Each structure stands twice: as C-alpha cells, then as structure tokens.
C-alpha cells in the first residue's frame, strides 16, 4: 500500500521539547510519532530535529527518487532537442543559409511571429 506523502511545514508539525524526550524516553517519543506521524524536537523553542516513522522516511525517499528521475528524463529530452538543432548547424550549407536569413528583412505584417523552427 502506497503511503500518501503529506509534507507539512516544520512550523505546522507537533513539537516536543528536548527535556520531554529525556523525561519520557524513546518509548514516549515514539508513541507521539505513532499518534502524530512526525514530531519536531525543540531546544529552547527552536527546532533541532524531526523524528518520523520509517514508513514516512521511505515515502519521502521514494518521492525524491521519482522527482529526480522525472528531472533526468526532462533534461534528457531537452538535451536531445538541443542536439538536433545543433546538428542542423553542422550541415554543409548551414553558414550560407544562416547568412541568407540574416540578410533578408523580417516581414511580420504587424503580427508577432512565433515558431519552433529556425
């Protein structure tokens, strides 16, 4: 069963002071984690650590891995498109074609010209 990943801001997580961790012990802290899912341990009211379940940690790591894979895929697609465009500049007549385009004035007729071609 997939765990729904809900990432709350650290300010919105339940808090427990470090003194309670010492007083209640590990078992007490893990009861809070079991009830609330995550807990921020504070020292002088400043966040010092976040304790979460192994299940939550696994879900976060899976989400990070999936996001990284999507980014890699998008980068590969972009790289492929760039390489295709760069290859068009490697053909024998690329220089003369580019000079021809640069010499001729653009005729837009009052409209914006948009396109993906060169």
From TrEMBL:
Task: Please report the name of this protein according to its UniProt entry.
Answer: Antitoxin
Matches recorded under Pfam families:
PhdYeFM_antitox
InterPro entries from the xrefs? Antitoxin_Phd/YefM (IPR006442), YefM-like_sf (IPR036165)
Described by its record, this protein's role is as follows: Antitoxin component of a type II toxin-antitoxin (TA) system.
Family stated for the protein in its record: Belongs to the phD/YefM antitoxin family.
Domain of life from the UniProt record: Bacteria
